Amino acid sequence: MLEHFQGWLAEASQATLNIVLLGVILSLSIFADTLARRTRVPRISILMLIGVGIAVVHQVWLGAASGDILGGLSAPLTQLALVMVAFLLGSELTVDRLRDTGPLILITSLFVIIGGGLVVGGGLSLLGFPLVVAVALAAISVATDPAAVSETVRESGDTGLRAKVILGIVAIDDGWGIVVFGLSMAMLGWVISNDGQVALLHALWELGGAIVLGTMVGMPAAKLTGRLRPGEPTQVEAIALILLLTGLSTLLDVSALLASMVAGCMVANLSHHHTRSFREIEHIEWPFLVFFFVLSGASVDLYQIDDAIGLTCAYVILRLVGRVVGGYLAVICNRRRAQSLPRNIGLALTPQAGVALGMALLAAERFPAYRDSLLPVVVASTILFELVGPVFVRRVMRS
Asked: What is the pLDDT of residues 11-29, one digit of tens each?
């Protein structure tokens, strides 16, 4: 039976198999939604576990090597999903919102980000892990899942300073994360390169070029958005923006995340009807995120998992410690403004999801020699943090 099935697969074209597999993934996502509602297990964790299950079938049952199960289609799908996430994230960075954020939220978020990143990066370096792994995971650790945190805070019913600070931090946290990740990748490329001058120029181009690209795409898009009526033209414009940002950032070899965030920020601040484009992207975003989370789980090399167990445990512990230390220092250094904030506020920022996974995939693509170290760690830790993160958030809200 298995031999006949493998023979049938061998005869089918890759394009046909891709279409079937995409349909299977979307069908399984419906099951994931139902299971999530009945068990309260996060959808993201279920989708990534489905991806791991696909990896088991692909690598163990069919005996195929780890890698792209869609034969080259996974990369553009995940890139599109990441660009959508970053573009929508940029929409949160409006001048009015940043003005309302206030110094307390800004300072607290900086303490958590810097403190957490230093603890993770320094801890992994002291434990003897390679520089690329330590720096990449330190940058990835900065990202937070705003949806999980926001939902748990709203469930608590708290509308005081504590809730406002936590919601304010998660609103800008991933923006900081994308900037930190871009700087870290550029720095690593410069440090490990044999030609420091060329690497430095490349790093400057990767970051500066992303800002220029985001501005050049975002400014005309902002003008165009204000002149369109709601409906099909707006949807076409939104899809065109995503495709242009994805393709041009790859073509120009600049940070797709940073370019998309800048473009989203431009549209949000310069257009009078900016919500139209963002709503259209939100309407089409979820199927791409389904592919993204499932393919992230399926990209793990199951035969290399044993080597990543120690690194995963170290990363999880150090990230928790870093969040707690960063939050504690933020409260201590802002006693006058943060009297009602709990000193363990950093625990409320532990969930991580799409942005962290996207960073891991980009880091693995940039440094393929460390792919089998980075991906299993981030996939496993994301599943864990999505499960236990809301518990920590509830604890902080009750303390």
From this structure: 556 677 778 888 888 888 8
| CATH number, domain containing residue 190 | 1.20.1530
- Kindly report, residue by residue over 306-364, the tens digit of the pLDDT: 777 888 899 999 998 988 888 888 878 776 665 667 777 778 888 887 778 888 888 88
Report pTM.
0.77
Question: What count of Cα atoms within 13 Å lies in the side-chain half-sphere of residue 184?
Answer: 28
pLDDT in tens, 283-294: 777 888 888 888
> Which residue segment(s) compose the domain that 350 sits in?
74-398
Q: Is residue 312 part of a domain?
A: yes
